Amino acid sequence: MKPMIVTECKVFVIGGSWRNWVIVKLETDVGVSGVGEATLEGKEASSAQAVRELARYILGKDARQIELHFQEMYRRGFYAGGEVLTSAISGVETALWDIKAKALDVPVYELLGGKVRDRVKLYANAWYQQGSTPEQFYNDAKRILKLGAQGLKFNPWGRRQGIDFYRLENRILREGIDSVAAVREAVGPDIDLYIDCNGIFNTTGNAVRAAQAVEQFNISFFEEPIPHENLGEMAHVRSKINIPVATGERLFTIFTYSQLLEQRAVDVIQPDMSHCGGMMEARKIAAIADAHYVPIAPHNPNGEVSYASAVQMAACVPNFLVLESFPPEKWAEDVCANPKVIKDGWLEIPDRPGLGVELNEEEALKHPYEPYDLYNLHRPVGEIPVPKYEDSLR
To answer: What is the secondary structure of 220-271 as a DSSP string?
Structure first.
């Protein structure tokens, strides 16, 4: 390959109904461009500015040397790690992979080992409202099941009146248990159920208590039972319950994931393609997890570029388990075309060059950024305007 010099770094902060996207576009002197995603939920302006800081490094560099550029951006700027910088690096690094694969006219997964599967199982998130009654959970689960969902994830305890992240009232515990029972009754024994605690239990005892109370419903994994900072306490929770523990959406790079796995604190890892350090870093994280017999199920709530990069991982990572799916923004395909073929809750792996997505800059500018904080995401302060599922899962 001939050198491809990065000539421009554009950053688009695109306003969504409940989360904004941070899309990075790199252009080169040979006319090949690439996109990546640096979305950082609730802190998009911070991530976008960090990308602009990284632009001072990446402009004038050869886009082919992806590993070199990751090492330089991560290590040589003196400060390393953290959600803001690593999210920004993820966006730039992913765009470099998009450029290189497009130049070779192959999907990114062909450069990362090639396909090991032709389709990936999806599970639905955001199909319910936190704080709902068991009857509402039952009805919503029935509705989403008709769309072909093969798995459902939900938080049965979040946003309930009187919730206290340090104290678990018997009423709130019971309402959550009843809601899990209602969902299992609605979908039957064969559909996967995943519970996402979102780290709302700030004491390990309450996390264990809640998990043990729902073990009877055959839960496929119990996500973020406690906050992410203390890996030793996550290992303690895992040792006390009989549901696989999932975590990782707020962890970054091979270094933290190595510690997580060495402490035997996790059964399913969940790196986010917008945060973890980029595509090669995600590939390395998956390989380390594979050596510990742990599968990968990426956190995937953000924009279409992040979604597309997760699908590239699904194609080439042998220990890939399942992919999270949120209802799309109505305008998503206009801003960032990412055609999907989904049948009975399974997504076919595309064969388009690069990431397989196309950014429309003019359409992106029609959705200006508006700050949206997540401080009350799990507190009972009204509904979150998440888009509703349509027949996209059929």
So the answer is: SEEE-SS-SS-HHHHHHHHHH-SS-EEE-TT--HHHHHHHHHHTT--SEE--
Q: Which amino acid is at 128?
A: Y
CB 208: neighbour CB atoms within 10 A? Answer: 19
DSSP 60-98: TSBTT-HHHHHHHHHHTTS---SHHHHHHHHHHHHHHHH
Q: Are β-strands 119-124 and 346-348 bridged in parallel, bridged antiparallel, or unpaired?
A: antiparallel
What pLDDT band is residue 394 in, cutting at 50, 70 and 90? very low
Q: Are strands 192-196 and 245-247 parallel, antiparallel or unpaired?
A: unpaired
Q: What is the pLDDT of residues 80-103, one digit of tens each?
A: 889 999 999 999 999 999 999 999
Give the containing element (helix H, strand E) for 105.
none
Reported as half-sphere exposure (CB side, CA atoms, 13 A), residue 16 has a value of 30
Instruction: Write out pLDDT tens, residues 20-76.
Output: 999 999 999 999 999 999 999 999 999 999 999 999 999 999 999 999 999 999 999
The residue with greater pLDDT, 283 or 390, is 283
Distances (CA, A) of 357 to 25, 116, 340: 12, 21, 10
pLDDT score for 392: 55
For 329, the token pair is 């923004």
Cβ-defined contacts of 291-296 (< 8 Å, 24+): 292/261, 294/261, 294/266, 294/267, 294/268, 294/269, 294/319, 295/268, 295/269, 295/319, 295/320, 295/321, 296/268, 296/269, 296/270, 296/271, 296/320, 296/321
The whole-number pLDDT of residue 385 equals: 82
Measure the CA–CA gap between 284 and 74, rounded to whole angstroms.
Answer: 15
- Total Cβ atoms within 10 A of residue 239: 11
The tens digit of pLDDT for each residue in 201-217 reads: 999 999 999 999 999 99
Closest CA to 301 of 217, 377, 201, 383: 377
Cβ partners under 8 Å of residue 133, min gap 6: 175, 179
pLDDT of the residue at 77: 86
CA distances from 121 to 298, 311, 314 (A): 12, 11, 9
The answer, yes or no, to whether residue 230 has pLDDT greater than 80, is yes
Mean pLDDT value across residues 114-121:
98
